[in-house]
């Protein structure tokens, strides 16, 4: 990378699970403007606190060249913009590009000749050049690939994972011209110790990202369907998977609730684009239907087990341990534990949810769920271990059963305990 490139100022648009680690790492070697529309988020970061728990106060302190702002006019000091806003789906399971379009408008207002805009948000192939670039051109009055340029480098952040972090995960890069592709690649190579992979085009990089999580979604859907089948056969799914796993090329997927900002969302971006082109995906959407139905399946299995023990379901109390979409992480986005809560409520069950990792205010605001800090003892007719947080792993099944009424059902969704220690699991 040339010395001129080294001194260019970066602006990171969106300081969530993806943007903040990126801003911190780049700010160790170059000026970085960290921008977010959430003023409370900015205030907490300036005070040295990251509520996502991805970045420690010490790591924030090491980012010597990083300044935070919620004032979009401050972005005009940058020459390279990296957009890391979320790309959710709406209630109809269609891509919601609103955050991406708004971020593009924000960048477009400060875009200058020679600037580069890089997108990291997960999208369908073509979104950068077909949806974002026209916004940049319209707002800035500049011409794409003449006055300004674009790149795409899909995020691969795994929230809560302390082993696979930003710098140790190989980064796919791309650019709108060969020269810009090389510039973008070298930019990321300056911080990614695992190396980079320069894709042939922006569309190739976009497609590569969206199929990463689609592949995982389908593999999990397969084992979820197997779990349903094996349950009807009276077989322990975990025992079957452990036996099959003795073969060198058997993939170690496990059944469960598929939530989060990636696996349960990204396939819909791909299927949306396919349907626009007149192709109606079969396998991908079948996997989505299976995984989206697992919350109702879990609730149904618990209710059946309660009935077998002659427990009155209507009016019963159930304790769910865990609300976040994965273990050891405060991320509540698209958590499917809420599907279990809603389904049980339809049976007339009163549900308490306990999760020390989750933010109680966020749980209430996003899902209307009030978290309990100290679950009652001997009070619940059903207990579901839903998320494998370390604090739950450290407790044995007998300890969890202390919360159960004299007659109760313990359901172990994560297969943390020996098969005979719980009453049922996936």
Write the layout of secondary structure elements.
Layout: H1 3-6, E1 10-13, H2 19-26, E2 32-35, H3 39-46, H4 57-62, E3 66-69, E4 80-83, H5 98-108, E5 116-119, H6 127-140, E6 149-152, E7 171-173, H7 178-189, E8 196-198, H8 202-233, H9 237-244, H10 266-276, H11 283-292, H12 294-308, E9 317-321, H13 337-346, E10 350-354, H14 360-367, E11 380-385, H15 390-393, H16 397-401, E12 404-412, E13 424-425
Parallel strand pairs: 1-2, 1-4, 2-3, 4-5, 5-6, 7-8, 9-10, 9-11, 11-12, 12-13
Helix pairs in contact: 5-6, 8-10, 8-11, 12-13
Family: Belongs to the UDP-glucose/GDP-mannose dehydrogenase family.
Pfam families: UDPG_MGDP_dh (PF00984), UDPG_MGDP_dh_C (PF03720), UDPG_MGDP_dh_N (PF03721)
GO molecular function, one term: NAD binding
Description:
InterPro entries: 6-PGluconate_DH-like_C_sf, NAD(P)-bd_dom_sf, UDP-Glc/GDP-Man, UDP-Glc/GDP-Man_DH_C, UDP-Glc/GDP-Man_DH_C_sf, UDP-Glc/GDP-Man_DH_dimer, UDP-Glc/GDP-Man_DH_N, UDP_ManNAc/GlcNAc_DH. GO terms for molecular function: NAD binding; oxidoreductase activity, acting on the CH-CH group of donors, NAD or NADP as acceptor; oxidoreductase activity, acting on the CH-OH group of donors, NAD or NADP as acceptor. This is UDP-N-acetyl-D-galactosamine dehydrogenase. Belongs to the UDP-glucose/GDP-mannose dehydrogenase family. Keywords: NAD, Oxidoreductase. By secondary structure, the protein is an alpha/beta fold. It folds into 2 domains: 10-202, Rossmann fold (3-Layer(aba) Sandwich); 220-425, NAD(P)-binding Rossmann-like Domain (Rossmann fold, 3-Layer(aba) Sandwich). The protein contains 16 helices and 13 strands. Strands 3-2-1-4-5-6 form a 6-stranded parallel β-sheet, with helices on both faces. A 5-stranded parallel β-sheet has the order 10-9-11-12-13. Strand 1, helix 2 and strand 2 form a beta-alpha-beta unit. Helix 5 runs parallel beside helix 6 (127-140) and helix 12 (294-308) packs across helix 13. The protein is globular, with a radius of gyration of 23 Å.
């Amino acid at each position: 990378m040339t010395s001129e490139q080294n001194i260019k100022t970066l602006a990171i648009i969106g300081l969530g699970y993806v943007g903040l680690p990126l801003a911190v790492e780049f700010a160790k070697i170059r000026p970085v403007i960290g921008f977010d529309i959430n003023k409370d988020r900015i205030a907490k970061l300036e005070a040295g606190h990251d509520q996502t728990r991805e970045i420690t106060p010490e790591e924030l302190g090491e980012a010597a060249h990083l300044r935070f702002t919620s004032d979009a006019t401050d972005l005009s000091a940058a020459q390279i913009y990296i957009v890391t806003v979320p790309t959710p789906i709406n209630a109809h399971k269609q891509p919601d590009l609103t955050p991406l379009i708004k971020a593009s408008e924000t960048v477009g207002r400060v875009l200058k000749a020679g600037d580069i805009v890089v997108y990291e948000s997960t999208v369908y192939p073509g979104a950068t050049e077909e949806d974002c670039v026209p916004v940049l051109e319209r707002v800035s009055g500049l011409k794409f690939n003449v006055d300004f340029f674009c790149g795409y480098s899909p995020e691969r952040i795994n929230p809560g994972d302390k082993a696979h972090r930003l710098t140790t995960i190989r980064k796919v890069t791309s650019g709108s011209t060969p020269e810009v592709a090389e510039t973008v690649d070298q930019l990321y190579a300056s911080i990614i110790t695992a190396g980079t992979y320069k894709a042939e085009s922006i569309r190739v990089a976009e497609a590569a990202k969206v199929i990463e999580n689609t592949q995982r979604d389908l593999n999990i859907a397969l084992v979820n369907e197997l779990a349903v089948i094996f349950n009807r056969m009276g077989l322990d799914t975990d025992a079957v998977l452990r036996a099959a796993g003795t073969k060198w090329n058997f993939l170690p997927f496990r059944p469960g609730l598929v939530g989060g900002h990636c696996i349960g969302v990204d396939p819909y971006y791909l299927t949306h684009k396919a349907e626009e082109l007149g192709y109606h995906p079969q396998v991908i959407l079948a996997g989505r239907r299976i995984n989206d139905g697992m919350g109702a399946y879990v609730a149904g299995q618990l209710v059946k087990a309660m009935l077998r023990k002659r427990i009155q379901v209507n009016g019963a109390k159930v304790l769910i341990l865990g609300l976040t979409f994965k273990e050891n992480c405060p991320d509540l986005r698209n958590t499917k534990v809420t599907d279990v809560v809603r389904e049980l409520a339809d049976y007339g069950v009163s549900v308490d949810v306990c999760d020390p990792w989750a933010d109680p205010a966020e749980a209430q605001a996003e899902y209307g769920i009030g978290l309990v800090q100290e679950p009652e003892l001997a009070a619940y007719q059903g207990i579901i271990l839903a998320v494998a947080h370390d604090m739950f792993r450290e407790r044995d099944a007998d300890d969890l059963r202390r919360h159960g009424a004299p007659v109760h059902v313990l359901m172990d969704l994560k297969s943390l305990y020996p098969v005979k220690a719980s009453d049922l699991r996936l």
